[in-house]
Amino acid sequence: MKILVINGPNLNMLGKRDAKQYGTLTLAQINKQLGSFAESLSVSLKFFHSNHEGEIIDYLQEETDSADGILINPGALTHYGYSLRDALIDTKLPIVEVHLSDIDRREDFRKIDVLAGIALDNIKGLQEKSYILGLEKLINYIRNNSKV
Ligand code: DQA
After folding, report:
1. What domains, with CATH codes, occur in the chain?
2. What separation, in Å, do the N-terminal and C-terminal C-alpha atoms of the chain show?
3. Cβ neighbour number for residue 99 with a 10 Å cutoff
4. Which of 15, 34, 21, 27 is nearest to 51 (CA)?
């Protein structure tokens, strides 16, 4: 099983961002935790980060055929990224959306999630644990729904 782990704008700055919202771990540290968790379940992860919506779309279009699912923190694209939404739908892959902070308990603009409805689940507010929980849910879903 191969899962794409995608992070959008500004998530490369984790560790230097508002620790109250996003915790203190860097993206590399979060990815390392995810990697160990996935390895223990014999799942392979492919990591991608970009600050640019179009680059994430290019990546999805290139990688979809060889992947079984997508774990994504779209950053602020969550709130306005309609072309990212379309690209995610076009993959036809199972998707879990994750957020470090609780986007429902912050500024009003963060309560708008244009990806709503396309992900199996949306895990938020648990800081780095959102990623682990999200990955676990995605793997379970893929295992329970795979044709072989
Ligand atoms: C975020 C929440 C977004 O509103 C914000 O723009 C981010 C990170 C989160 O993980 O909590 O960059 O996706």
Report:
1. 2-144 (3.40.50.9100)
2. 12
3. 25
4. 27
The radius of gyration of the chain's CA atoms, rounded to the nearest angstrom, is: 14
pLDDT, one tens digit per residue, over 84-125 is: 999 999 999 999 999 999 999 999 999 999 999 999 999 999
52: tokens are 């640019």
How far lies 54's CA from each of 8, 10, 83, in Å?
Answer: 11, 15, 8
Q: Is the pTM of this model over 0.85?
A: yes
Beta strands in the chain (DSSP E): 2-7, 44-49, 69-73, 95-99, 121-124
Q: 59, 79, 99, 131: which one is catalytic? A: 99
Q: Is the CB of 110 under 6 A from ligand 1?
A: yes
Is 49 a known active-site residue?
no
